[in-house]
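Fold this sequence, please.
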Amino acid sequence: MKLKLNKKGAMLVAGVMSLTALPTLASSNGLLGLNLTQVVTTADVSELTTSLGLPDVPVVDSILKMDNEILIQGGEIKVLRELIEKVGGLVTHELPLVGGIGVRVSDLQLAILQKLPSSLIKITKNDAVFTSSALDHCSVYGSHVVDLTANKIRWNLYNAKDMQANAEEMTFTWPERLGNVRSVKFNGRLVYWSLFGRQNGELTLDANALKRYANLDAYESATVEVSFTRYGADNYNQGDFSMDVEFAQGCDRSLVKGYDTQANSEDSNSYYVNNIGADELHDNGITGKDVTVAVIDSGLWAAHSALSKNTANRSRISAAYDALEDTEVKISNMTDENSHGTHITGIIANSDRAVVDGQMRSYYQGVAPDANLVVVKAFYEDGHSTYLDALRALQYIADNHEALNIRVVNLSFGAPPRSNYWDDPINQAVMALWEQDVVVVTSAGNTGPSAMTIGVPANVPYVISVGAISDNYTQDNPNDDTLLSFSSQGPTHEAFIKPDMVAPGGHMFSLANEDMYVPSKFPQYMVGKDRFIMSGTSQASGVVSGVVALMLQNDPSLSANDVKCRLMSSTTMAQVNGKLAYSPFQQGSGSVNAVKAVESSESGCANNGMDIAADLSGEQHYMGAARKDENGNYYIKGFEFEVWEEAFMWDEAFMWDEAFMWDEAFMWDEAFMWDEAHMNQENFMLQE
C-alpha cells in the first residue's frame, strides 16, 4: 500500500526527519571552546537522547505548535539563521541592532537551543511591553467637567480595573456662602446626611462613612453628588470647589478640579506650552523647524491636519512604518486604533494655534509645531506590544535615522526591569541609538510612588528619562505645582538617580477621536470632536521631546550628551523654605524650562565617566551614586543635598551619571529599597 501525504503532512514528516537526522549534541560541554559558526557547521547532533534530557522520539504536536517566541543573540544574523534552519523554527525578526533574531519554536526546538552553552547564544523570552499609560497602577478615573445645578454639584468616576476599588476617604471644599453640605450620595446611595452640622466650607468623610456604599466594582461607573443647604451653586465655577478621594488600593484622585474654560470646545487648554515657556520661543521663531522627531507608539491619526501639516500648512511626516506588520505605510493611511501615539505626537508637534478664552493666540498648541515627524506603529489597540516588535521599531530608527535626519526619538512605553540595564535587549537597542547621537527621550513610567519603579528603557543611565508634574489646575500660579503621585521613582537597581527631570504630565489636552480605543472607554475625557485629556509620564516625555526639537533647531550641532547636559542644567528644583520639596529620586534635576534649555551654553555635564561603547561591548558596566546608610535612608555618595540653588551645576565628582565601577555584590540587592518614612510627601509646592 502506498502512503499518500498532503502538503502539510509532507512538511511535518520532513520536519521530524530533519530533527532525527541532526548531528548529535552528545554533550553541551563538548561545544565549549567553539564559536557559534563552528557549532552550526560542525557539531554532531544526530541523536536526540537522554544526554540532552530530551524525548527519544520527537513529539509531533511539539513541532506543529511553535508556541515559544524568543530573541536569540550571539552572532551574525546569517549564522543565527543557519542555526534555526538546523534546529528548526521560524525566523520572524532580523535585529542586527542587538545582534539577534526573533524566532518562533516548539517546546522541543527550544529545549535544544537551551542546551547550547550560554557563552554561544543568549535566549530572551518575548515579554510584553506597554505604553506607559497602560501601566498606571491606579486606573480609577474621573471626569474633568463637573455638573453644577442650583444647590448640587455632581462628578463622575470610572473604575478601569478588573477588581473592586474601595473609597477610604473623601474630602470636599466649597464656597461658604452655599452653607453646609446637606448630603453626599455615591451612585444614588446616601453616604452622608446632616441637617444642622457646621462644616465651615470643608468636610472629610472617613472609611467608616464610606465602607457600605462607596465602592466601585470592576469597570463600573459612579456619580458623586453633593447637595448644599443654600442655593446658588450654578453661579460658581468648578474651580471654586474641590473633591478628592483616596482608595484602599493605594491610589487617589482629585475629583472636581479643572480649568473653568475646560468644557469650552473652542479653547485649546494646552497649558504646558506656557508652563515651560515654549510660547515665548514660538514668538521668536523657535518652533522645531527642520528637526525630525520619531515617535514609536500606537500609530497616528495622520488624517488630522494639525499632525500631518506644519504651521505653514506643508506636509511634514517624512515616513510611516508599521513594526507590527513590518511594512512601510503610505503616510495618509497611517492610523491609530488606541489614541496614545496620536496624543503624544500632538503634545510634541500640534501645529494649530492656541485658543484661550475664545481668542486665537500667536503661539501653538504643540511644543515644537514645525518639527518633522516619523511615525512608527509598534503597539496594538489595547496598548500592548512585545520585545520583538519594539526592537523591530528601534531597528527601523537605526536603519533610517541618517536618511530621514531623525534627531530625536520619543519612547513613551515601558516594561518592568528583569535584568541589569545593560543586559536588557531593548536597553541595548536604545543605547546603540544614543551612541549614534540620536537623542532618546523616554517616560519614567506610571507605577510610582514607590522607589525603584523606573522601568525599561527609562533605567538606561545614558538616555533622558522624564517624570510627571501637574500645574494643579492653576496655570498662573507655579507655586502650587505638584508631582503626580503615580510618577515612577528611582533609584534604579544599579543605583542611578532617575528620573533625570520632570515635565508637565497632568490633565494634558491633546488630539484623539471618540472612535479610538481609549476615548471610547472614557468618553468623559473627550472635549469637542478631536481633543482628549490624559495624564502620565508618557505625556511628560512628549513635552521634553518637543523641547529637544526646539534646542536642535536653535543649535543643530548639539550632540546627544550636550542636549542632556543643557536640559538638566537648566531645570528648576522644587523647594520649600530652602529645602527640597521632593528628593532627586522623585524630581530628578527639576522641572524642564524650554527657554533656559535653548539659551544654555553648558557642555560636558552629562554621562561623564561612562564609555557607552565599552558598556555595549560588555567590557565595562557602571553603577550610579545612590547609596543607603545604616538606617536604610538613601543619599548621594559624597554629597549632601539639603539646599540646591536653581542654577546648581553638578560638581564633576558628583555627577548623577558619574561612573562607579560595577560592584557585583551590589547587583539586584533586594534590600536596596526605599525607606517609606524617608520619602518626602507629594503635597509640597514647587517654587521657582
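The mean pLDDT is 81. Residues 537-554 form the longest helix (18 residues).
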